[in-house]
Amino acid sequence: MADANNLKIDIEVPFPSERFAEIAYHVLRVEKEPKRSGVTKEITYHKNILHVKFSAQLARQLRVAVSSFFDNLNLMSETIEFAGDPVSSTYSHF
Amino acid sequence: MVIALGLEGSANKLGIGVIKDGEVLSNCRRTYITPPGEGFLPKETAEHHRKNVISVLRDALNQSGVKPAEIDVICYTKGPGMGAPLASVAVVARTLAQLWDKPLLGVNHCIGHIEMGRLITKATNPTVLYVSGGNTQVIAYSRHKYRIFGETIDIAVGNCLDRFARVLKLPNDPSPGYNIEQMAKKGKKFIELPYCVKGMDVSFSGILTFMEERADKFLKQGYSPEDLCFSLQETLFAMLVETTERALAHCDSREVLIVGGVGCNERLQEMMKQMCEERGAKLFATDERFCIDNGVMIAQAGYEMFKSGTRMKWEECFITQRYRTDEVEVTWRED
After folding, report:
1. What's the rounded mean pLDDT across residues B241-262?
2. Which sites bind substrate (chain B) (predicted)?
3. What integer pLDDT is reported at residue A35 of this predicted model?
């Protein structure tokens, strides 16, 4: 089925390594967009790049979703800065 | 030995704490305080939490003396609460869990209050009155659930107090409820207000509207702001004591535990104590460190969950604004 949302934003975020991109993917993927936000978010990663695709019908909806995404991305980077490099090559408690 | 890190941010308090087998190693908190006459809104509150979370985390870890490697489980508030502030803190919890390779547990905020209250007061099977800015519930434990006996049908008692504080333009520092409590001590004249107990449930929104509409008139008639605070507190707390007493009688319980931010109000404690004494029951309450939202209560509830074998799938590590107390399977109690 074709995507009914005609406004789209694709974001690519490069990380220092694939492991960081993977962590970012897991941290950011679990929270779904609010039901009535009208936004769909698709998140994937390939090598060290995190890919996020947003689509919505209204620019306002898209702006809210993207701005909240960057808030979370910033917060996550700050947390990484504080907590240091990952201690393991994979997460063992999925 | 189990060490749990807890992160809480469901309302305007950002709290992070560490607990080790029931011993509080650290309990750090920072509150988002708005100007007099204003409440806190989700967006600004989330911003406050994002700005402060790393420094509160640093304080909590430093004070505890615990190294990340020693932590067994990371716990965060899954709900109920305001979406945006909850989600900000959850991002940090998920990132830490991934980086440090630790299990992650989403904790029900109300369960956090109850378990922290039980830990601090050593009450074993209390009838619980949970009163805060967002929640008002009378709770009793039965067959692995904390069951809600009665609750507010509209706004929480703390919300009623907070919003009345805005009418009088009382400061929100340290908290509107605290300032009402201090004013109420000097109140002399009691004004009769609507009293809204409906079976086991209570309703506060009508009382708030009544006060909002008439505050000016009362002040002009010669009642002082102190009289208004006094009358409001007496009325609201009488309603809470009434419903708690009924639950107590129904459960044939001998213990009452008050938790939640409004629970540190000494007048409420005094009224509840009087009722308990008349019934041969014992009142348990904690002070502001543990009554008001904090991180260590989330750590404590998470610790109990973790020890009893509860694990959460990563896919479930999101937040939810609505999350009722009786949805949680209490796996850590034998009775």
Report:
1. 97
2. 130-134, 162, 177, 181, 265
3. 84
* Strand pairing report for B73-79 and B104-108: parallel
**Are B314 and A94 in contact (CB < 8 Å)?**
yes
- Map out the domains of chain A as residue ranges: 7-83
- pLDDT confidence bin for A3, thresholds 50/70/90: low
Taking the C-alpha atoms of residue B71 and residue B235, their distance in angstroms, rounded to an integer, is 45
Beta-carbon separation of B314 and A87 below 8 A: no
pLDDT at B306: 98
Q: Do B99 and A87 touch (CB under 8 A)?
A: yes
Query: What would the mean pLDDT of B199-218 be, rounded to a whole number?
Result: 98
- pLDDT interval class at A1 (50, 70, 90): very low
CB atoms within 10 A of CB A13: 18
Kindly report, residue by residue over B50-107, the tens digit of the pLDDT. 999 999 999 999 999 999 999 999 999 999 999 999 999 999 999 999 999 999 999 9
Backbone angles phi, psi at B329, to 5 degrees: -80, 115
Distance CA A94, CA B192 (A): 57
Structure token pair of residue B251: 């459960």
Q: How far is B198 from chain A (nearest CA, A)?
A: 34
- Is A89 an interface residue toward B (CB < 8 Å)? no
Chain A residues touching residue B57 (CB < 8 angstroms): 82
- Tens of pLDDT along A56-90? 999 999 999 999 999 999 999 999 999 999 999 99
Residues B328 and B133: their CA atoms lie apart, in Å, by: 21
Look up residue B323 and give its two tokens. Answer: 């999350």
CATH architecture of A7-83: 2-Layer Sandwich (3.30)
Q: For B3-114+290-327, CATH number? A: 3.30.420.40
Q: Does A36 touch chain B (CB under 8 A)?
A: no
| Cα atoms in the 13 Å half-sphere on the side-chain side of A13 | 23
**DSSP class of B152:** B
Q: For residue A34, what are its two tokens?
A: 């609010």
pLDDT in tens, B75-91: 999 999 999 999 999 99
Known binding-site residues of B for a divalent metal cation equal 109, 113, 130, 293
Other Cβ atoms less than 10 A from the Cβ of B21: the count is 10
The CATH 3.30.420.40 domain(s) of chain B lie at 3-114+290-327, 125-287
